[in-house]
């Protein structure tokens, strides 16, 4: 019963357009693509393209199925390479340990890397 409100809150927090809703026979949620956003700190290479393009590249590269939480972690990193594990845990409503487990799998799958150390470093999506 709280799903629509949570969707709206998450979209607003992520500074994305509010979703539309249709009730023609079947309930449908319509998400609009956001304009390309610049990432935070980078290694000289910015996250290029939209999240949809990046997500597709990550899916093609992955040799394992990527879970919903893992995709949301990758999306947060696409939006800001300096996002912290506690911030991710809060947004995902899971424990920090849960985020760490997802990150470990993403690193093993060669989709994600950490640059310049744990403190003061940044995340890099390995899409190329």
List the helices and strands and how they pair.
Blueprint lengths: L2 H11 L6 E3 L5 E3 L20 H11 L6 H12 L5 H8 L3 H13 L3 E4 L6 E4 L3
Antiparallel strand pairs: 1-2, 3-4
Helix pairs in contact: 4-5
Write up this protein.
The protein is built from five helices and four strands. With 128 residues, the chain is of the alpha+beta class. The chain has a two-stranded antiparallel sheet. It is globular and about 50 Å long.
Biggest sheet, spatial arrangement of strands: 1-2
The backbone outline, from C-alpha atoms, is globular
SSE arrangement, N to C: HEEHHHHEE
Structural class: alpha+beta
List keywords for this structure.
alpha+beta; 128 residues; two-stranded antiparallel ribbon; 43% helix; 11% strand
Concise account of the structure shown:
The chain is α+β, with helices and mostly antiparallel strands and 128 residues long. The protein contains 5 helices and 4 strands.
């Amino acid at each position: 019963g709280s799903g629509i409100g949570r969707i709206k809150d998450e979209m607003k927090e992520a500074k994305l357009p509010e979703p539309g809703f249709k009730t023609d026979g079947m309930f449908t949620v319509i998400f609009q693509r956001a304009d390309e956003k610049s990432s935070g700190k980078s290694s000289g290479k910015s996250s290029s393209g939209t999240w949809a393009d990046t997500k597709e590249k990550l899916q093609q590269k992955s040799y394992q199925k990527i879970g919903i939480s893992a995709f949301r972690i990758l999306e947060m990193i696409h939006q800001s390479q300096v996002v912290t594990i506690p911030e991710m845990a809060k947004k995902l409503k899971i424990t920090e340990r849960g985020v760490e487990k997802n990150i470990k799998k993403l690193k093993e799958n060669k989709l994600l890397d950490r640059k310049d150390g744990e403190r003061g470093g940044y995340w890099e999506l390995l899409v190329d």
